[in-house]
Amino acid sequence: MMGGDFGSDYFTILDEEGNEFDLEHLDTLEYNDQVYMAFLPADMEEDDEDFGIVILKVVVEDEEDALETVNDEDELNEVYELFVQRLSDEDDDGN
Description:
Elements lengths: L8 E6 L5 E12 L2 E8 L12 E8 L2 E6 L3 H20 L3
Antiparallel strand pairs: 1-2, 2-3, 3-4, 4-5
């Protein structure tokens, strides 16, 4: 159960099968005229083999923002590297 003030943004998203996932928002960036958001699974242990950064693309569906997975592996790798660099820079700055 999640409650209280975490000091971060948490989202609950649904996948195509209707399964709920709680994600902690890490960062947002714009790349090639697209907006991407990086998350960490909020309900998964860090030592779980599937634990890691989740990158979703912001798309407009029916005039509303929605999140979708990045299906292009090259695009995903490029955006992943940008997020890793940005998050690493933040750690180096002491944030």
